[in-house]
Each structure stands twice: as structure tokens, then as C-alpha cells.
Specification:
Blueprint (H helix, E strand, L loop, with lengths): L3 H4 L6 E5 L4 H12 L3 E6 L2 H15 L3 E5 L5 H15 L4 E4 L15 H29 L2 E6 L12 H20 L4 E8 L12 H11 L12 H8 L10 E4 L5
Parallel strand pairs: 1-2, 1-4, 2-3, 4-5, 5-6, 6-7
């Protein structure tokens, strides 16, 4: 029987995290590297990826590959996967974390372009990357894929309808891909609630804190490193009998 620490050990593994240069993605990248994994850090802005890669190397000594990728573009997603396999020869952990949720004033003013961008980044990109990487994981004998959705998937508000629809789609894809790549590849989903990352800088924090005190059982928003426990659980052998699951990390809001 493995001890508790050994179950979360990622030594010798390679993790690819989209949206990995800041916020929840950055927290997961650093956690995986601290647990022993080499990492691929993908986001649209290469300088930001390089900065996070430098942090990984400085703090953990692990290898880190920064890759610029807009996950809403099919060919860029394919190029990201190929870059990771060329550098490391394998991907053991895939985290589909990149997302976007632009605001709009009225639902009837949502343009086709805005709708397509939201669905492309939040749903199409994860589909293609999971299909490519999951197939290679299955051929190689196993792996772990982690979707990152949102409480909007189950409690959508009027202000995020396309985003909520895309995130609900991730829940369906989690279940579907768990079947597609059974039994060797585990596919699970983290469902975060409100986290105090870069996105929260645009919030009215006084109003948010007031709502949180009544609407969130824990009474606050989450800090980025509070996603780490769920991410390490799904990435490691600690979740060896878990697939097709959606785990809420939301302070009890959902």
C-alpha cells in the first residue's frame, strides 16, 4: 500500500496545462512541478508562458516548455500537442483550463462573432486537444485528463449564457471521453466557483463580498492555490478509481 505522499507523487510525469501562465492554471502548473512533473505551459501570450516557465525552473528545477496557443483555433491546438510530444515524448496529464467569458449588455446584442469565440475557446479547443492527446494516452497505456468548467454550467446567469452553455458542454465531454478512452485514461472535471484571480480585478469587490457573505457558505471567494488539491487528486494515482466525475471547488456556492 502506498503512503499518502506517494499517491500524489508525479515524478517522471509530463503535464500540459492550457491557460497555464496565470490564475488557476499557473497554480496548477507550479503544483504539478513541485510534485515532480515536467510541464508544458500554454496560453495566447508567449512572454507570460516564458515567465511562468522561468518560475517553474527556478523554484522546482523541473523542465518547462512555454508554448503560445490560442485554443480556439483547431490548428494551433494540434501544433501545441505536437510541440509537447516532440519535446517530452509523452503527455501524462492534460488540463483543459483556458477559457474566456466576455461581458455583454443584453443577450440579444451578443454577436455571432462573440458567440463563436466563446464556444471555440471553452468547448471546441478542449474537444480537439482531448481527442488528440487522449488517443495517444490510451495507446501508451494511460493518463489523466482534467477539464475545468464553472458553476455557471449548473447555475447559469443571464450575463454569461454562451459561456455557461460551453461549460455545461465540458461536463458532457467529461462523461463521453471517460467512455471513449476507458479503461486506461481517466477523464474528470473540476468545477470552480468564484476565484480571486486576475478576472476578479474587474469586479466590484464591495458588492461581491456582500453577496459572498450570504450566498457562499464559506463566505468568500477562493484563492488560486485552493484549486491545487483537486488538481493533484485528479492528476495523480490518488484518483485511480475516479473517472467521469465533476468535482465542485466553489465554497459551497453550487
Amino acid at each position: 500500500m502506498l503512503d499518502a505522499n506517494a499517491r500524489f507523487d508525479l515524478t517522471g510525469k509530463v503535464a500540459l496545462v492550457t491557460g497555464g501562465s496565470r490564475g488557476l492554471g499557473r497554480a496548477m502548473v507550479l503544483a504539478f512541478a513541485t510534485a515532480g512533473a515536467d510541464v508544458v505551459i500554454a496560453s495566447r501570450k508567449l512572454p507570460s508562458c516564458r515567465e511562468t516557465a522561468g518560475e517553474v525552473q527556478r523554484l522546482t528545477g523541473r523542465r518547462a516548455l512555454p508554448v503560445a496557443c490560442h485554443v480556439g483555433h483547431w490548428q494551433q491546438v494540434e501544433a501545441l500537442a505536437e510541440a509537447a510530444y516532440q519535446e517530452f515524448g509523452r503527455i501524462d496529464i492534460l488540463v483543459n483550463n483556458a477559457g474566456m467569458s466576455p461581458t455583454y449588455d443584453r443577450i440579444e446584442n451578443v454577436s455571432e462573432d462573440l458567440y463563436d469565440k466563446v464556444l471555440d475557446v471553452n468547448l471546441k479547443g478542449p474537444f480537439r486537444l482531448t481527442a488528440m492527446v487522449g488517443a495517444r494516452m490510451a495507446a501508451a497505456g494511460g493518463g489523466s485528463i482534467i477539464m475545468v468548467s464553472s458553476t455557471a454550467a449548473v447555475r447559469p446567469s443571464a450575463s454569461v449564457i454562451p459561456y455557461a452553455a460551453a461549460k455545461a458542454g465540458l461536463h458532457a465531454m467529461t462523461a463521453g471521453f471517460a467512455q471513449a478512452f476507458r479503461p486506461s485514461v481517466r477523464v474528470n472535471c473540476i468545477m470552480p466557483g468564484p476565484f480571486l484571480t486576475d478576472i476578479s480585478k474587474a469586479w466590484d469587490m464591495e458588492a461581491f463580498n456582500k453577496r459572498a457573505s450570504t450566498d457562499i457558505p464559506l463566505g468568500r471567494g477562493g484563492e488560486a492555490d485552493e484549486i491545487v488539491g483537486a488538481a493533484l487528486y485528479f492528476a495523480s494515482s490518488a484518483s485511480s478509481f475516479t473517472t467521469g466525475a465533476v468535482l465542485g471547488v466553489h465554497g459551497g456556492v453550487a
